From TrEMBL:
Keywords: Aminoacyl-tRNA synthetase, ATP-binding, Ligase, Nucleotide-binding, Protein biosynthesis. It is an enzyme of class 6 (ligase). This is Tryptophan--tRNA ligase. Belongs to the class-I aminoacyl-tRNA synthetase family. The lineage of its organism: Bacteria, Pseudomonadati, Pseudomonadota, Alphaproteobacteria, Hyphomicrobiales. Its EC number is 6.1.1.2. It holds the Pfam family tRNA-synt_1b. One of its GO terms (molecular function) is tryptophan-tRNA ligase activity.
Length: 339
């Protein structure tokens, strides 16, 4: 894949390894990563260090999920020959860059970061904010710049982190008097966030409203059975609402035949179409989408040695690249390098 001169734009993105990935990740990011992996030089970071910033009491879970997320990547079609998959905690240059960058950010700026403010509230940290958590945007700036990524596909909630990254980049570049680091651009998905099966705004494992990529045929059937529809649509004969009806939101996201979905919507609005029938169509689409993913995932899970090799090789490639960036910065700042 890598030719002597690789002019492809560089992508870095990743996931905290807090749990296996679900359909929301598939729609919002995984699908996009598979689509971009040939036209871009793509790095995927298994962000176990960042996961520890709010899970320091549970390192076992974070470690276990490094492999679970790697299974998910491979199962959806991330090709390790095209995309470099690497483990954050095994890349010391990321920690070194973080410490350097901390000098180019103020505590006040960190406290005002909108992403962090919301997340502190969600986690109920209030006064007892782990310092590592407050500073994770700086670590994320280290991740992005260490790879010299110019494109960072992330959810809308993460956009302030890219802004903060670029502030650090501009300060460092000003400090050394030339553009050692490139600025990065957030690539926000154009499709809306997939709601949970209960109709809540976000699909999330901790809310218990997610369909994991490893869901069994029975899990899928059950998730669709309890899925939120139009609470006022009591009889099939009545007209029903499509807006806010999760079954239709999912059909829009997953059904192959868009014309067929439009016909279903029209029929539902008119009345005469029961929830059960619509749900059966959705279940068929989801079973068809997830069956091959589940089978591939099971094959990787049965061969963790192979997957560990993928991570070992990807991490070695990433180590070289990130250490080169840190060496370049050290030289630019006039710090020592012993050879
Ligand atoms: N913050 C991202 C998340 O919560 C994970 C992540 C870590 C990341 N480092 C990154 C994303 C660098 C993009 C670029 O999922």
């Amino acid at each position: 894949m890598s030719s002597p001169i690789d002019n492809r734009p560089v992508i870095l993105t990743g996931d905290r390894t807090t749990g296996p990935l679900h359909l929301g990740h598939y729609v919002g990011s995984l699908k996009n990563r598979v689509a971009l992996q040939q036209s871009h030089r793509q790095f995927l970071l298994l962000a176990d260090m960042q996961a520890l910033t709010d899970n320091a009491r549970d390192p076992d879970r974070i470690r276990r999920n490094v492999l679970e997320v790697a299974f998910d990547y491979l199962a959806v079609g991330i090709d390790p020959l095209a995309t470099t998959i690497c483990v954050q905690s095994a890349l010391p240059a990321l920690a070194e860059l973080t410490v350097l960058y901390l000098n180019f950010v103020t505590v006040g700026r960190l406290e005002r970061n909108p992403t962090i403010k919301t997340e502190i509230q969600l986690r109920g940290f209030e006064r007892d904010i782990p310092a590592g958590f407050l500073c994770y945007p700086v670590a994320q700036a280290a991740d992005i710049t260490a790879f010299k990524a110019t494109i960072v596909p992330v959810g809308e909630d993460q956009a302030p982190l890219i802004e903060q990254t670029n502030e650090i980049v501009r300060r460092l570049n000003r400090q050394v008097g030339r553009d050692v680091l490139p600025e990065a651009e957030a690539m926000i998905p154009t499709v809306g966030r997939l709601p949970g099966v209960d109709g809540k705004a976000k699909m999330s494992k901790s809310q218990g409203n997610a369909i994991p990529l490893s869901a069994s045929p029975d899990d899928i059937r059950q998730a669709v059975r309890v899925m939120y529809t139009d609470p006022d649509h009591l009889r099939a004969a009545d007209p029903g609402k499509v807006e806010g009806n999760v079954v239709f939101t999912y059909l829009d996201a997953f059904a192959e035949d868009k014309d067929f979905v439009e016909d279903l919507k029209a029929h539902y609005r008119r009345g005469g179409l029961g929830d059960m029938v619509v749900k059966r169509h959705l279940e068929d689409s989801l079973q068809a989408l997830l069956a091959p993913i589940r089978e591939r995932r099971a094959r990787y899970a049965a061969d963790p040695g192979y997957v560990l090799d993928v991570l070992r090789q990807g991490t070695a490639t990433a180590k070289e690249r990130t250490e080169a960036t840190f060496a370049e910065l050290r030289a630019a700042l006039g710090l020592f390098t012993f050879t």
